[in-house]
Amino acid sequence: MKKCLEVLIPVTFRKELTYHIWNSAIVTYTPVVFTTAIQLDPTDATLHSNRSFCYLKSGEAREALVDAKTCIGLKPDWPKGYYRKGAALMSLKEYKEACDAFMDGVKLDPASGEMHEAFWEAAAALKKKHLAGKTVSSFD
Question: Where do the TPR repeats lie (predicted)?
Answer without folding.
Answer: 79-112
